[in-house]
Design goal:
Order of helices and strands: HHHHHHHHHHHHHHHHHEHHE
Number of domains: 1
Shape: globular
CATH superfamily: Sodium/glucose cotransporter
CATH architecture: Up-down Bundle
Distance between the termini: 57 Å
Strand content: under 5%
Length: about 475
């Protein structure tokens, strides 16, 4: 059998095996009930995810080609700070924020806002902002970076958009046919494959340079970033922590998995296990292949990961790794699609359009629409110099204003929802101006200033415009 045919066979066989194992596990878990029987089944997997599945799903939902391609594309050790700081964000989710979601019996993170502010408008606004971020930032970057990896690794002539369309169709199929249960279970199976082969890639990359980092510039190896680096050291003291709290603690795509366990304790175990995986395994995976590629090929940017993987892996194993990468892209895409549908259905469609929609049909229609929007944005991201830095900077437009609404809602009572909404809008405008028009600070510092500005604005506007008296009344407790 020619080696190219063998590669394709291994790729198709492993991808099909993951799909079959996912189907079998779903059927075993729910018996004769429909996979799409209720809102809980679609969006919270019937609240039946074990801590192992939660850990695997959280890990692989986040670990996609936008991390593997984007972080390795910087070709420097400094980018490991994103993953090391994420450990802190996961611990805060497990011990501080997750118990609040369970106490308020939330399906979406935005539902907590409605219950704390006693106003559905802020839930709809924040849900809409999450949707915009998913549609115009996360889905297209995942599709683009995954397609770029396949194109670079196998050096195929297929257009990026055609490869992205294949990922989009398969990802949508998981989200439509199986809901969160199928998404999370496929995440867990795929995670074992990707992490195992990822460790192999790291070791083979090091072996390719005989574990010798000489000749690589010091700024590529340091963990202390200079002022003109992607992560200056002083940003670790300001906006980095808020970025992690937002992403791991309020982002529907991540927290949805932790909220889908039968008990808060089970969810916490899964989140803490995901934190351990992120600390021990992920940092080397997202920086070492890129650093090695700099020594071997020079500064080649986002093409680094695909190039090094294609060179160091034996040909007979490349099909398996392609399946692992495809699984990472698919699980990340279908995770974002499922969480986006949850936000649309729960926060917008049911309150304002129809209280009892046909979930099967609505889920399919919305998912197809979201996929088409994501595909339309792929060519835009193909022009980026660094996909990971662009994503982080763009998402600051939404992340810090959204986080401010959660901070105010979780720590205070009697804050007018209108004041929080006004603060969110002001935060989007101010971050946009000071990051993209006049940028006196690094964008991570600007995130810190934005969240402080938004929290202060919400309290002041509520007090002086809406004539309420905000009171310190934290909903969070250490658990």
């Amino acid at each position: 059998m020619p080696i190219q045919t063998l590669q394709v066979f291994v790729f198709v066989a492993i991808t099909a095996l993951i799909a079959w194992l996912t189907y079998r596990r779903c059927v075993r878990d729910i018996g004769d009930r429909s996979l799409m029987a209720s809102r809980d089944d679609v969006f919270l997997a019937g609240r039946g995810l074990s801590w192992i599945v939660v850990a695997g799903s959280i890990t692989l939902t986040n670990l996609s080609t936008d991390q593997l391609v984007g972080m390795n594309g910087n070709q420097m050790a400094l980018l490991a700070w994103w993953e090391l700081a994420a450990v802190v964000g996961l611990i805060i989710l497990a011990k501080v924020i997750l118990p609040v979601y369970y106490r308020y019996d939330c399906t979406t993170t935005t539902e907590l806002l409605e219950k704390r502010y006693n106003d559905g408008r802020i839930r709809a606004l924040i849900g809409l902002l999450f949707l915009l971020g998913n549609l115009f930032i996360f889905i297209p970057t995942m599709l683009y970076s995954g397609s770029l990896f396949i194109q670079t690794m196998f050096q195929v002539e297929l257009p990026i958009l055609l490869i992205a369309s294949g990922f989009a169709v398969l990802g949508a199929a998981y989200a439509v046919l199986g809901g969160l249960r199928a998404v999370a279970i496929s995440d867990a199976y795929s995670g074992v494959l990707l992490l195992s082969l990822g460790v192999v890639v790291v070791l083979l990359s090091l072996a390719a340079i005989d574990f010798d980092f000489s000749g690589i510039p010091a700024e590529r190896l340091t963990m202390i970033g200079s002022n003109d680096s992607p992560i200056p050291w002083h940003t670790l003291l300001t906006g980095m922590l808020f970025i992690q709290i937002f992403y791991w603690g309020t982002n529907q795509t991540i927290t949805q998995r932790a909220m889908a366990s039968p008990t808060v304790e089970e969810g916490q175990k899964g989140v803490l296990a995901a934190a351990a995986i992120r600390f021990l395994i992920i940092p080397p995976l997202v920086v070492i292949p890129g650093i090695v590629s700099y020594k071997l090929y020079g500064d080649i940017g986002d093409a680094a990961f695909g190039q090094i993987v294609g060179d160091v892996l034996p040909l007979w194993l490349s099909g398996a790794f392609a399946a692992a990468i495809a699984a990472a892209v698919l699980t990340s895409v279908n995770s974002v699609l499922n969480s986006s549908t949850a936000l649309y259905v729960c926060d917008i469609h049911e309150p304002y359009i129809s209280p009892s929609p046909n979930l099967r049909r609505l889920n399919m229609i919305i998912t197809i629409g979201f996929v088409l929007v994501g595909l339309a944005m792929v060519p835009t991201y193909a022009k980026a110099d660094s996909i990971i830095n662009l994503v982080q900077e763009l998402y600051g437009l939404l992340s810090m204003p959204i986080l401010s609404a959660f901070i105010v809602g979780l720590l205070f009572r009697d804050v007018a929802a209108g004041a929080a909404i006004m603060a969110v809008v002001l935060g989007v405008l101010s971050y946009g101006y000071f990051s993209f028009v006049w940028a006196p600070f690094h964008y991570i510092h600007m995130m810190f200033f934005t969240v402080i500005f938004c929290v202060g604005s919400a309290l002041l506007v509520s007090r002086w415009v809406y004539r309420t008296k905000p009171q310190w009344s934290p909903a969070i407790q250490l658990n």
